[in-house]
Amino acid sequence: MSAPGAVVEVRHRGLITLAIMLATIMQVLDTTIANVALPSMTGDLGATQDTINWVLTSYIVAAAVMTPVTGWLSDRIGKRELFLVSIVGFVVTSLACGLAWSLPSMVGFRLLQGLFGAAIVPLSQTFLLDINPREKAGQAMALWGAGIMVGPIIGPTLGGWLTESYNWRWVFLINLPVGGLALLGCMAWLPKSTLRQRRFDFFGFAMLALGIGALQMILDRGVEVDWFSAAEIWVYLFLTITGFWVFGVHILTKKEPFLDPRMFLDRNFVTGLVFIFVVGIILLASLALLPPMLSRIFNHSSITTGIVMAPRGVGTMISMLLAGRLVRKVDPRLLVMAGLSLTVVSLWMMTGFTPQMDDRLVIWSGLVQGLGLGLVFVPLSTVAFATISPMFRADATSLFSLVRNIGSSIGISVVTAVLTRNVQINHAEMAGLMTPYNPVLRETLPAAVAGNQATLQQLDNLVNLQALMVSYLNDFKLMMLITLCAVPLALTLRRPDLSAGPPPAAHAD
């Protein structure tokens, strides 16, 4: 019998890949597509501006908590069976979300949707690694990465179009035909997998779930309650530290822990986790900043914002397809460093944004950033799993997805908090210069010095605009520095042998 997770001979590899990617894109889209529909949901569900955010929080927390258990479930019931159950559950709960009649019902359905959807992304990566030989691993990760990276980019645009053209319920109902096609394809062509008997380490899972869930609550609730000025954030912090600390000690001392610590002996995998954390910060943090910036400063609609940001997705797809072919011929470490360097250049270009510019700089910087992130993601996804034992693959891919999602959540929370704080600071500093004793103000706006209310209002609007713009530039600089610091980490990766041949043997015994 082959080792669990080893490459198997399959028919209809292309059709399997298509079905898997349909399910993957469906799940990834749901992490961002609902954001733009929240204002429309508020009135229909009888929610307030604060409580409606639980529609997002419930999904994120449920998915984060359930992602690490993917490996154990796939070993117990089979990867194919778990994938099919996840698709069916995700589609059914999407229908329920589209039919929700109140905020509690919506939050409950989103919670279930997150639970069912958690396994889809890590299992899709596992399947693509299983059904493709090692020499085609780069191309397989290019296709998988295209869905993972492009999904969040087109999500807000698609959600805005569905909400404006129909109503917010179609943001969830759109999953039905996509999920149906994915389900039929997977049922028809997805190969069966080998089962593996593993005891469920409930205590280890509980501690990891406690740490992850509490961390997500900090990140999602922090902005609303002013971070550590609220008692609940301190409670979440205590639970986060306790959960992760106890879990770390537990897996090092228990005979059969929830996650086998031997997988962390693979240097490429551990370095890959660090890199995907950074990529998560850059990818969704910039996605969280650009749409509101284009809306608040440049008065773009959701559709226009999507069109302006589309070249970013195009650049990502181009570089991923290119990297999928280059990863066997070029040192993957050079591709990662080149991708990070392009990302640094794009963020530097974004620090040159001004309220008076047109969309060209946004488009070009987005294109360069897309090219850079694509060059990072494909070789990183390939190298991270090139040397790890196949028996750890399902657990490893679930951790890979989990760390990427945590990085995204942290990145969004940090840039949002920094933006809010800098807006207040910049506004106070600029407003302090707007006095009758300022010679420039006396020359350019004498009516403001004279106390004309209309002119003073225009001046205040101008100060607000400039303070907001400078705050966005500060965030772009922060992200640029984070990315720049990550470039030397590429040297810690080992160049694996990606030539044709069997996968590495399960060396855990």
Automatic annotation (TrEMBL):
Membrane-topology annotation of the record: Multi-pass membrane protein
CDD domains listed in its UniProt record: MFS_LmrB_MDR_like (cd17503)
Protein name: EmrB/QacA family drug resistance transporter
Cellular compartments annotated: Cell membrane
GO molecular function: transmembrane transporter activity
Natural source organism: Fuscovulum blasticum DSM 2131
Chain ranges of the Major facilitator superfamily (MFS) profile domain: 16-498
Record keywords: Cell membrane, Membrane, Transmembrane, Transmembrane helix, Transport
Main location, first listed in the record: membrane
GO cellular component, one term: plasma membrane
InterPro entries to which the protein is assigned, alphabetical: EmrB-like, MFS, MFS_dom, MFS_trans_sf
Transmembrane spans: 12-34, 54-73, 82-103, 109-129, 141-162, 168-190, 202-219, 231-249, 269-290, 302-322, 334-351, 363-387
Family under the similarity heading: Belongs to the major facilitator superfamily. EmrB family.
Domain of life (superkingdom): Bacteria
